[in-house]
């Protein structure tokens, strides 16, 4: 169907922050509507539920597979149909 987009900035301790734009491929119109409607809650969860120290290491080493896996898990808390993958469109650390 279409990709829902979520942009956010997250702090990695006192010294670093990361700015990301992720695309969430949606299977149908209902899922797209659900993800876009819940985007503020998803964004908040992506920012607040990650372990800063663990993610700082993942970001520093550019371990995109682990980052995606963690983010997919968080996004799926908010969706009826599970999201299988996400794309990182923009990554600044």
What is this entry, summarized?
By secondary structure, the protein is of the alpha+beta class. The chain contains four helices and three strands, in the order E-E-H-H-H-H-E.
Could you explain the architecture of this structure?
This protein has helices at 29-37, 39-48, 52-60, 64-75, and strands at residues 3-12, 16-25, 87-92. With 93 residues, the chain is α+β, with helices and mostly antiparallel strands. A 3-stranded antiparallel sheet has the order 1-2-3.
Structural key phrases:
single chain, 93 residues, alpha+beta, 3-stranded antiparallel β-sheet, 28% strand, elongated
Topology of this protein?
Layout: E1 3-12, E2 16-25, H1 29-37, H2 39-48, H3 52-60, H4 64-75, E3 87-92
Antiparallel strand pairs: 1-2, 2-3
**Helical coverage, percent range:** 40-55%
Counting H and I runs of at least 4 residues, what is the number of helices?
4
Amino- and carboxy-terminal Cα gap? 30 Å
Query: Helices and strands, in N-to-C order?
Result: EEHHHHE
Report mean pLDDT, rounded to a whole number: 90
Structural class: alpha+beta
User: Could you give the order of strands across the largest sheet?
Assistant: 1-2-3
The largest pleated sheet is described as: 3 strands, antiparallel
């Amino acid at each position: 169907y279409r990709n829902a987009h979520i942009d956010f900035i997250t702090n990695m301790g006192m010294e670093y922050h990361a700015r990301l734009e992720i695309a969430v491929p949606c299977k149908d119109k209902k899922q797209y509507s659900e993800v876009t409607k819940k985007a503020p809650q998803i964004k908040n969860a992506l920012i607040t539920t990650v372990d800063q120290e663990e993610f700082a290491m993942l970001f520093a080493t550019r371990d995109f597979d682990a980052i995606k896996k963690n983010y997919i898990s968080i996004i799926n808390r908010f969706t009826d149909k599970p999201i299988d993958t996400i794309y990182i469109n923009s990554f600044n650390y």
